[in-house]
Amino acid sequence: MHEVIQRLVQASGLDAVTLGVILTGTEKVARTNLGITTVEQGFDVLKSGARRCIDVGTWGELKEQFGSLALVIAGVQEVMRFDGLNIELSAVPKGKEIT
Asked: Which residue range forms the structural domain that includes residue 80?
């Protein structure tokens, strides 16, 4: 998939093409994250014509180099890019508000 996407980028064709992929890898993480639980359901999604934009990042390169460890590496990379959030939380246990 990585090579196909790179060729589309080189040809400036990303906006003109819909790419359908049936995810069957051993990790099944991408398929599960997309809400597709079976290969058959993946074909049903393709037949429906529904489109989704997904960020494929550098996953293909990481997986080729590191196998299953690529999941951990990608997670650490995402954590390093995360800026954090300012959150104010209020709870009301037994009628008394705590902030």
From this structure: 2-84
